[in-house]
Structures are given as structure tokens and as C-alpha cells.
Amino acid sequence: MKKKFLALYFDAPSLAFGFESRHDRRGTAPFPTRSAVTGILCAASGVERGDEAFLAKMAALEMVALELPRVVEKWKDGKLGKARLSASNLLDYHTVGGGYDKSDEMKVPRKAETGKPEWKDGKWVSALSYREYLTDVKFGVIVGGDAATIEALAAKLADPVWGVWFGRKCCVPASPLMQGVYDDKASAARRLFDLCEIAELPKNETDDEAKNERYYRLIRDAKPGDEESQVVYDVPVTFERSRRGLGEEFKRRQVVVLTRNYDDRDAFDEDFGE
Questions:
Q1: What span, in angstroms and rounded, lies between the C-alpha atoms of 274 and 256?
Q2: Second label for 164, Cα 20 to 30 Å away, from 44, 46, 76, 118?
Q3: Could you give all domains of the chain from N- to C-terminal order, each with its CATH number?
Q4: Are 26 and 18 in contact (CB under 8 A)?
Q5: Can you tell me the distance from the alpha carbon of 92 to that of 76, in angstroms, rounded to the nearest whole number?
Q6: Which residues are 124's β-sheet partners?
Q7: pLDDT tens digits for 51-107?
Q8: Within a 10 A sphere around the Cβ of 270, how many other Cβ atoms?
Q9: CA–CA distance, 145 with 132 (Å, rounded to integer)
Q10: What number is the average pLDDT over the span 173-201?
Q11: What is the pTM assigned to this prediction?
């Protein structure tokens, strides 16, 4: 069976990958979860929330995530050069539904569960939450599988059925999400590295790796012998709202997060199969 690889580019002013979110605290994972990527593929394909067969098909695909730099131009020592922004987390105090008159019901945001606004004690009820976002960072995702599946997903991403965003509707892509289908993982990775301009960053001329701006992080499924792996529950079985909180929405996955030097060719060959 011929295998192909899809390169996805996660570029936006802010991104969010729902993780350990409960009640009014909406956290984000530090990297794209398999659930987040699967949700994007489902939206682009027009797949309903309860289509477990499609979700099982997506769970069988290989998926590798890359944390990439957001590169800007900065003046340093009288010269204009490329520099890496420091990735950070933004916490937003989020309100929905407050300050409306009852006569303006049509303008009040609806609750997802009922499709209606909530009126209580003579006023519209406000929904309050703390929502976390990732900023000043980009991500790449490489999805691998049989050629027919990957090419079908690429066609849907080029002309999505439903809207595509990175976790929340305010996290709208700033660059084309779909960056092509490739015959090997290495070619997909090179495309993502070229897009984020990591090669334009200053090259480390010392032995101090802490000063190296040309680094990226690789997030993949753990393999036998990997050290310091972590367990995440992010393989979706269903997205049905009625089954939330029942402990059956996600399966367990073990991942590793590896920090890599862009100039380390041996690590590139090991990670991307050359």
C-alpha cells in the first residue's frame, strides 16, 4: 500500500487546543492534540459529531506535530535581522450574554446545549469563563496514511464543508492550512520548515544550546525505549455532546516531546525517515 503525507500549517495570532477544560476553566495543551487535528479534518470533510467510523479511520493515521518559531525582523547591534519570538500563554477573561435588554433577544448569544439564551431573575444570564490561548508560536502537523485517504482529506481541506479554525472560532488561520501532499515525511517537514523561516534565524556559533534559536519541538507517539513519555487522552471516539463527561469520549495515547536542533541532520533523518 502506497503511503502519502499531508502537511498542515497552523499559523494564527492565537491558537487553542482544548485540554483539561472543566466548567469555567478552558485550558489549552502546549501543542496540537490529535483530537484538535481530527476535529479540523472532520469539519473540512463535513462529518457529523457522532460518526465513529470516520473517527476510527482518523485514529489509524500517523500524526506528528512540530512546534515551530514565529520569526520577525528586529534591530540588533545596528543591524536588521531575523529573531524568534518567545512563545507564551494568554489568559482571557471571557464573557458571553451580559448587558442585553430583553427586547434584544435575537442579538443575545445562544447556549450550545439548548440553542436559546437564558433569562433568569429579570436579566439575561452571562456565561463567564477563563480561556487560555497560545501566542507567538506556529505549529506544523504531518498526517500520514494510505494515498486515497490522504488525497481525499487534502481535497476537503482545499474546499472545506464547514469552517476551519484552531480550537476556537477566534483562532482563524492566517496562512493556508493545507500545504500539500507528499510522497515522504521528510518532504512534508521541509515544506513546514521553509514556511516558518527557521533557517533565517541566527545559527548557534557556541556550544551553549540554550542560545540556539534554530530549535523546534517534535511531538509524536511514544516508541519502545523512549524516555520521559507522557500520557494524554486525546484520541476521539466521539464528539457527541450528549456523551461528554462520561469518560468514553477519548482513548489514551502516550507521546514524547523532543527538542531538536534544526542543523542536526542525524536527528532529522531519525525523525523523518531519511
A1: 20
A2: 118
A3: 3-70+136-272 (3.30.70.2660), 88-133 (no CATH)
A4: yes
A5: 32
A6: 119
A7: 889 999 999 999 999 999 999 998 888 888 899 999 999 999 877 665 555 565 555
A8: 13
A9: 32
A10: 96
A11: 0.86
